[in-house]
TrEMBL record:
Organism listed in the record: Pelovirga terrestris
Family of this protein: Belongs to the peptidase S41A family.
Record lineage: Bacteria, Pseudomonadati, Thermodesulfobacteriota, Desulfuromonadia, Geobacterales
Limits of the PDZ domain: 88-152
Protein name: S41 family peptidase
Cited NCBIfam families: prc (TIGR00225)
């Protein structure tokens, strides 16, 4: 009887946790609930007393709790004290590992995105790659936190992965050396003609403030202000909901940015835009791809629904759920899916993702080159080229960087062409560019003007 009471006490602690954090409904609502709990206690008691090797009650309880999460979605999990500590460190933006964001699809471990500047990114790991084996251990049926624990370890030690890549007949092996991963979530630079480029790598605690600071720097660098901005959310696996709201709020002056709805009243909320510190209405292009997930999709969806930006790239990942971290005794915790989130127009992106306004699969620009044909210089007896009246100036460092981008990043180049084309077709003699016109009309008009023909023609026209 004493054992039964101790088991019951432990179960109640694990199921209820800290009632001050998440108001919990009574665990037992009927006689059937009591009978089901009696069954669990009986099984735990039988295993504890009769298993071939001695096993502690705490170990059995932890295993039972893990079993609960096996029937839930892949983003929910039980966190041991060590796992909980790791998660808190990761949210703050510094941790040891190889630099990847993971998801579980059909019981398989899939890479959502490699984090820029990390061992995984430098080794050429791609979004969509499947990790089959970690240090000789199969990943099938591992939960998320178990996989994370296998991938993390001592800095400087190697971790051996077997990777299956879509389109490749055979898996391949790669060894990555663990590093202290310090994610600088925002990078930016000024492109030619006062166009800004801002890359957001992950949504962390300070991402909203960091983006605002980088935008201020871009405005200071641009003579006369920005003519447009490219916000790059490609391979951004997401992060904190509050950070996504803060970033979207920088570009939207009023209306709902995102809403969330779950079973408990406290999970049903909407996040309105604040008019303070809203960016000017310059043209905005947002880049997304299959590695853009969660918080990235919140931002892209808000900007798309408010017709504040043109979304360009590939279909996003489709993670439309909200996870709540609930602390438990002994420094453990739960990562529990508690709500779905919705874009301002009421769209759920769960398992669907954000569809770009302009679909643009990534490719090298060399793949789009037209085969060489007959040119003037190929004709017999053609007139020689004349020397230019003025010498061409050497390219600046900024122009060299942009030239490299054009040769390696097709999506970025299309975004830049879209901004340049918009400015060209909206410029009148002695008249400033009307930055509002792109943002105050429908998506069809935004990309259906003569400007868009430059870009959509390559898709089959």
């Amino acid at each position: 009887m004493l054992l039964r009471k101790s088991i019951l006490s432990l179960i109640f602690i694990l199921l209820i946790g800290y009632p001050t954090m998440v108001p919990a409904a009574p665990v037992l609502n009927s006689q059937q609930d009591y009978q089901n709990l009696e069954l669990l206690i009986d099984v735990l008691t039988l295993v504890r007393d009769n298993y071939v090797e001695e096993i502690s009650l705490e170990t059995l309880i932890e295993g039972a709790v893990r079993g609960i999460f096996e029937n839930l979605d892949p983003h929910s999990s039980y966190l041991t004290a060590d796992m909980y500590d790791d998660l808190k460190v990761e949210i703050q933006g510094q941790f040891g590992g190889i630099g990847i964001e993971l998801a579980i699809r059909d019981r398989e471990l899939v890479i959502v995105a490699p984090i820029e500047g990390t061992p995984a990114c430098r080794a050429g790991i791609l979004a969509g790659d499947q990790i089959v084996v970690i240090n000789g251990k199969t990943t099938r049926d591992l939960d998320m936190m178990q996989a994370v624990r296998l991938l993390r370890g001592e800095v400087g030690e190697g971790v051996e992965l077997t990777i299956s890549r879509p389109g490749m007949a055979e898996p391949f092996e790669v060894t990555l050396v663990r590093e202290v991963v310090q994610v600088q979530s925002v990078r930016s630079r000024l492109l030619d003609n006062n166009y800004g480029y801002l890359r957001l790598i992950q949504f962390q605690e300070r991402s909203g403030e960091d983006v605002a600071e980088h935008l201020q720097q871009l405005h200071s660098q641009a003579d006369g202000g920005l003519n447009g901005l490219i916000l790059d959310l490609r391979n951004n696996p997401g992060g904190l909901l509050d950070a996504a709201v803060a970033v979207a709020d920088l570009f939207i002056a009023d209306g709902v940015l995102v809403s969330a709805s779950g079973r408990q009243p406290e999970t049903r909320q909407s996040f309105p835009a604040q008019a303070d510190n809203t960016q000017p209405d310059y043209p905005l292009v947002v880049l997304i791809n299959g590695g853009s997930a969660s918080a990235s999709e919140i931002v892209a969806g808000a900007l798309q629904d408010h017709q504040r930006a043109v979304i360009l790239g590939e279909q996003s990942f489709g993670k439309g759920s909200v996870q709540t971290i609930i602390p438990l005794p002994d420094r453990a915790g739960l990562r529990l899916t508690t709500a779905h989130y919705y874009t301002p127009s009421g769209r759920s992106i769960q398992a669907l993702g954000i569809t770009p306004d302009i679909l643009a699969p990534q490719m090298l620009l060399s793949q789009q080159r037209v085969p060489d044909g007959m040119r003037e210089q190929d004709l017999d007896k053609h007139l020689p080229a004349q020397a230019p009246r003025t010498q061409a100036r050497p390219l600046s460092q900024q122009e060299e960087q942009e030239l490299q981008d054009r040769n390696s990043d097709y999506q970025l180049q299309r975004a830049l062409d879209l901004l340049k084309g918009y400015q060209h077709f909206n410029r009148k003699k002695d008249t400033a560019v009307d930055h509002n016109s792109l943002n105050n009309v429908s998506v069809q008009h935004r990309v259906g003007a003569p400007v868009a023909r430059v870009f959509v023609a390559m898709d089959g026209d």
